[in-house]
Every structure is written in C-alpha cells, then in structure tokens.
Amino acid sequence: MKALFLGLALLLTCADEPGATPAPKAKGWITRHEGFVEEAKKGGFEVLFQGDSITDGWRNGPAKKIWDDLFAPLKAVNFGISGDRTQHVLWRLQNGEFEGVTLPKVVVLMIGTNNIGQKDNPESPASAIAGVEAILKLIHQKSERTNVLLLTVFPRGQKPDDPLRAKVKEINAGISKLGDDRKTVKVLDIGDKFLEPDGTIAKEVMPDFLHLTAHGYQIWADAIKEPLAELLK
After folding, report:
1. How far apart are CA 232 and CA 56, in angstroms?
2. What is the Cα–Cα distance from 187 to 231, expressed in whole angstroms?
3. H helical segments located in the chain
4. Which of 43, 71, 124, 151 has its CA 20 to 30 A from that of 106?
5. Are 214 and 61 in contact (CB under 8 A)?
6. In the annotation, is 176 catalytic?
7. Pick from 171, 87, 184, 186: nearest CA to 142
8. Which domain holds residue 188?
9. Active-site position among 53, 82, 143, 176
C-alpha cells in the first residue's frame, strides 16, 4: 500500500513539470543505458553515482585515478551520462538501472544543470527541482534502505553575475529542502569550494566554467568522502 501511494505521488509530480516526466533519448544513449542495466543486474556494488556529464567525467583521464583510489574500494559504480536532465535519469532508474540482486546502500546524486543550461529547450529551475524530488521518491519507492547523498548543482559561468548562477541558486534553494530527519536523504552543498574568493570560477577548476578538471574532481572527492562514509555505516 505504501508503494502504491508513493507511485501515485510520483505520477502527480510528473504531471506538473517536464523535469519530473520520465523521458528516454536517442539510440546511442539507450545503448549506454542498457549497459548500465546489465551492470545493475549483476549487483555487487554499494554506491551508485548517478547524474550527467559531470558525473560521467569520473571515467576520464586523471579523474579516473581519483575514482580508482577513493571510490572503487567502496564498491562504487558510475551511471552518469553526458547531457542528461532529471527526466532522463528518472527514466533510466525506472527502466532497469535500479534493479538487481542487490541495491546500493548509497546513491550519490547530482543532476539538474542541463535542465536550465542547454540552449535546446531550456527549462525552469522549478522543473529541475521537481525532477530531483521525483528521483528521490522513486529511489525510496524501490528501496527504503538506500540512503541518498544529494549534491546541490555545482556553480557555472565564470562570474557571479552570470545569469545561470541565479538559476542554479534557485534550484539549490529548492532541493536543499528535500533532506529528511531520518537522514535517508543528506543534502550537501559544496559549490563554494569551486569558487575563488571573489566568486569567480578559475579555469584550473572548470576550463569551460561548467565541467571539472582533475583539480575540480579532487575538490569534489575530498568534500564528499566523509559524508559518504557516514551514510555507508
């Protein structure tokens, strides 16, 4: 009965905003999703990183070494896909990426920047917030024991007055309210760690003022290792 009510709540949310309406993408994307489904079926992992290109980037270059040193020993897997919005992650989780013999103890989730930042059909911050909320509901509908380390959206745009900064701030104000007293959802805002004292973003951290360098990934890793360890206890 509880699952029924959660499913109904999810459907009602989906009716409100595009970011909370599950949606697939093109063939190449489906192929990557199918690979993740096979990985999910095998199980054996305790931490699932889920998100867009910023999460996807843990696979590449120096970032992979950080991953191998810090997260691989925690039995972590990475299901991030470049370009994803909240609705795409929601669809993937509904369609096999959160199934299997065992489900993760912790999901590390950071998603929403593509809802507002892509030139093709940008959405409102409210759409991203609704999408994150729908993802959380789905995760706990499928697994009440899984904790979520919910990262607020990282800052983007070189200067503090970049229009996207205000939209990111609005998203983060909304998703910061999605934590719960039982600590099954821990919201963590590490955005300031990527900024210079004057609020700008250095190219040494984000060369395009969105995606991370190895130094940026190290900042991310250092910021979450202790909260992640707590959620894994």
Report:
1. 22
2. 12
3. 2-14, 27-42, 53-56, 61-70, 86-92, 113-117, 125-142, 163-175, 214-232
4. 124
5. yes
6. no
7. 184
8. 2-232
9. 53
Residues 6+ apart with CB under 8 A from 183: 147, 231
Residue with tokens 């970049």: 162
Alpha-carbon span 202 to 39, nearest angstrom: 36
Asked if 208 is an active-site residue, the reply is yes
Catalytic, out of 162, 189, 211, 215: 211
Classify burial at 64, counting beta carbons within 10 Å of its beta carbon; exposed 0-12, middle 13-18, buried 19 or more. Answer: middle
C-alpha angle 149/92/177, rounded to 5°? 35
Identify the pLDDT of residue 1: 39
Give pLDDT, residue 7. 45
Residue 32 to residues 132, 139, 184, Cα–Cα distance (Å): 21, 20, 28
Count of structural domains within the chain: 1
CATH number assigned to the domain comprising residue 11: 3.40.50.1110
**Residue 120 DSSP SS3:** coil
Spatial distance between the Cα atoms of 216 and 17, rounded to a whole number of angstroms = 31
Active site residue 88: no
DSSP state at residue 52: S
Per-residue pLDDT of 106-115, as tens digits, reads 999 999 999 9
Catalytic choice (68, 69, 180, 208): 208
Residue 134: which residues within 8 A CB-CB, separation 6 or more?
10, 13, 14, 19, 20, 86, 90
